Structures are given as C-alpha cells and as structure tokens.
Amino acid sequence: MMQGLLLSSLLVAAGAGRVVDPGQTGPYTPGFTSFLLVDASRPGDGGQYPNRPIPVFVWYPADASGIGSSTPLAEYPLDPVYGGAPAGGLPTLTSDALEKYGIDRGYQAPPVSADRPFPLLVFSPGWGAPPWAHASIGARLASHGFVVAVPYHFGDAWWPWEALHPFTTAVFNRPRDASFVLTALMARNVTQGDPLHGAIRSDQVAAGGWSLGGYAAEALAAGDDDVCDVSAGLFDDPCPFPPRTRTAPDPRFKAIVTLDGSNQVLHFDELARVTVPAMGMGEEWSTLAARSSLGASWQARQHAAFQGHPNYRVDVSGTIHESFSDYCEDIPMLGDLGVFDQGLVAALEQLLCTNSTPSSEAHRLVTMYLVAFLKTNLAGESGYESILTPGYALSREPLIEFFVTEKRNPNAIDQDWPGTFTYFMHQPGSEQARAEKDPKSVIRVPRALQRF
Q1: What is the pLDDT of residues 398-444, one digit of tens each?
Q2: Which DSSP category does 347 fall into?
Q3: Is the pTM of this model over 0.85?
Q4: Helix 212-222 with 167-189: angle, nearest 10 deg
Q5: Quick one: pLDDT band at residue 348, thresholds 50, 70, 90?
Q6: Averaged pLDDT score across all residues of the chain
Q7: Is pLDDT of 123 > 60?
Q8: Please, which residues bridge with residue 151 across strands?
Q9: In what helix (H) or strand (E) does residue 206 lie, and over which residues does it extend?
Q10: Burial level of 324, CB count in 10 A (0-12/13-18/19+)?
Q11: Three-class secondary structure of residue 121 per DSSP
C-alpha cells in the first residue's frame, strides 16, 4: 500500500515536475503533419510512381499556447498513396472522427513545442495496416513529449486498388522504409525553415512496430541474414531476391519496442544479436497457445533471445493480435464515413474485436508502458522506473504480467538445450516451459485475411 501511495505521489501533473502519469494524456498537445517520400533506389508501381513511395504520418508535441480557434484538427489521409479509388476520392478523416472512439485529439501542423528537441519513435504498422491504424500511439506519445513517425508500407494494399506485394517483398522493404524515413527526418531536423526543424533528438531514436512491424524493429537492431529463408515459408509467395539477400542493422536506433511482433521471421540466433534495450508487449501465453500454430512461446521466444539490457516481456491478458492496433476504432469509423457498409462493419467487428479486454483499456496499457519504457531507456528520464517492474503490475495492473530479463548462463544460447529455450509461464510463479528456438510449424494465413 505504501509503495502505491508513493508512486501515486510521483505520477502527478506536469506542474509538480516532469514526471506525468503515463496512463493518461501528457502535458503537450499533439500536432500532426504528413508528407510523401520517394526512395529512388527501389521500384514503385511502374506507373504513377516509378520509384518506391513512402508516405509518412508524424505526430509531435505542440504547446497549448500555439493552438488557436482557427487551428484545424489533424487530417489523416485515408489513402496517402493514391488519394482514393480511381472511380472517386475518399472522404477526409479528421481527428474528431477518431475522438468519438476514444483516440486523443490532434491538430494540423501547429508549431512544434518550444521545449524541442524530443526523442523519436519510428513505428512500423502491421502487414496491410495504414498509419492511421496507430493514431492512438502517435497522439498519446506526442502528448508525452515524443515525435512519432509512422510510415505506410507501399504494397501492403489496405485499399483494393493497390497491388499486394508478396510477403517476402514486405519483409525486405519494411526495415528499409524505416531507415529511409529516419534519414529524411534527420535532414528535415537540420533544415532551417522546415516545420520539423530542431524537433528531434538525433541521439534518442527508437524503432517500434506491430506484427510484421515488430519484425522490422528487430531487424533494424539485429539485421536479417536472409530475408527469404523464413518468410518464404510463411505464405505461398515466391522470393524475388537473390539467395542470402541481407538486411543490415541500423545503429542509429538505440532501443526497440514490439507489439505482438513477428519474431518468427528471424532465427533465434539472429534475435540474439539484439543488444539494445528492448520491450516486447503482446498476447498472454495461454491466448497464444489457443490461437497460434507457433504456440504459447511466441512472446517468450524473443525475450529469451534478446541480449540487451533491460529486456522486458509484457503479456496483456484478454487481448488478441488486433488489440495492438486501432482496428476496433477504425472499423466503425469507416462505417460512419460511409467507406464500409454496416454489414461489413458488423462482420469485421465480430472477427477482430471479440477480445475480453476492451480496446480502450488495451490502448491505455500499451501507451502507458511505451511511455515508461522510452522515457527511462531512450530519453534517460527518471521517475518511471517503478512501472517497469513485476511488482507494479501485481499491485496496480491485473491484466499485465511483467517479466524482467531472465537470469541465465551467458553461453546458454549455444550450450544449454541447443535446440530449445525455457521461459516462465506466469508472473509471479516458478512454473517453466520449454519451446523450440526455431519452430518448424509456422502460421499460414488465408489470403482473404492477409490485411487483418
């Protein structure tokens, strides 16, 4: 009880210091901008885009004093590549359409806060997901003093008029898109007159992602020795690249965060090359055991492999894969805008939003732990460490099981049970399980569900 009272006294509003309750909106007002990059080193669609387009959504901290009655609400392009179906455009998605479903308000292009510069999170969406499917993370983290850049990965085909690239192509492009976005943001950061000039701490950059975006974050930290050696087996898609096509790590990323990340795309020994601070949030192991052919160890696998310090595993009970996106807000929102008919809305909600933990609570937990982890291990701020403990979860967050780096022989990856690893099943508890480091069983998803 005394610990809880002490923590409550620390996690107060900004007027009492810099430590702010990471489970609530922060002291800044979220600003938003978007722009389109083009990477001339990779192919585009062969038509409108000869080279690869990379749309980018950026949320950033703004000051309330910089927001006036004439400041427009944030406008999130529904189709940041083509602008809408060839037969007609799409309606405008403004912040208030998402606020209706609990997503924080954002404003269009106000000045960056005078407290600049801020740490940066480059966040990769899941395969097929648009960047506005992570507005909850972008707006909430911006309110706590982070710049959040979310690219759209061309070829993911959220809209049916965009070609769907093979899964292996998505694996190849994702980390490269993130590095390209970082390079572009660093250039804007030092360009006088740019709206993002001076907004970013170039030495405080993290990579993050949901689902396949989680793989991208891991590959940016560890590299991938062959982009097709695993990914070609996950779907019935050919590999268009020469054997041993490698993704190099990007040392500019100083920490990684993954949300139900697709670590199965990397071998265990590749994951073991992650030496930066890392936190993986995802479904609780028993849910994974029931839903995934990879079984209960999906979350634990990366936690066992990562060699950075700290290394956290955060299991969220009552969630499913889509809980770590804004799909359950976006589906009815698209119905409100007339983009989806109500029959499709109902069908998708039944398919994707049947988890026992409400989406709003999942968002609160995800953003709370992201803020606490990144404030502590990227920005170097104090006051959030107590949240990053098993004890805090046990006393304050009944849906969270929090695992710290497990003690082990430093040579265990090679010497102890060469083909398997062990992991704790519950926190608290001493019960352990063993799983294959490189499971031969893989998830095979029907093509009709690849966007979800």
Answers
A1: 999 999 975 554 455 555 557 888 888 888 888 888 888 888 644 44
A2: H
A3: yes
A4: 60
A5: very high
A6: 89
A7: yes
A8: 56
A9: strand 200-210
A10: buried
A11: strand
Closest CA relative to residue 225, chosen from 207, 241, 208, 248: 248
What amino acid is encoded at 183 in this protein?
T
- For the segment 356-395, what is each residue's pLDDT rounded down to a tens digit? 999 999 999 999 999 999 999 999 999 999 999 999 999 9
Q: Give the per-residue pLDDT at 14.
A: 38
Helix pair 342-352, 327-336: axis angle to 10 deg: 170
Q: Where do we find the tokens 């700290």?
A: 310
359 vs 301: CA distance, rounded Å: 25
Specify whether the CB–CB gap between 120 and 149 falls below 8 A. Answer: yes
Asked if pLDDT for residue 285 goes beyond 90, the answer is no
Residues composing the chain? 452
Pairing outcome for strands 93-94 and 75-76: antiparallel
Q: 3.40.50.880, 3.40.50.1820, 3.30.70.940, 3.40.50.300: which CATH number matches 31-449?
A: 3.40.50.1820
Is-contact 232 400, C-beta < 8 A?
A: no
Task: Work out the burial of residue 183: count CB atoms within 10 Å of its CB; fewer than 13 is exposed, 13-18 middle, 19 or more buried.
Answer: middle
Crossing angle of helices 135-143 and 359-377, rounded to 10°: 50
What are 167's two structure tokens? Answer: 């899964």
CA-CA distance, 311 to 298, in Å (whole number)?
16
The answer for residues whose C-beta is within 8 angstroms of residue 65's C-beta and 6 or more apart is: none
Over 151-168, what HEC string results?
ECCCCCCCCCCCCCCCHH
Residue matched to tokens 């028993």: 286
- All structural domains of the chain with their residue ranges: 31-449
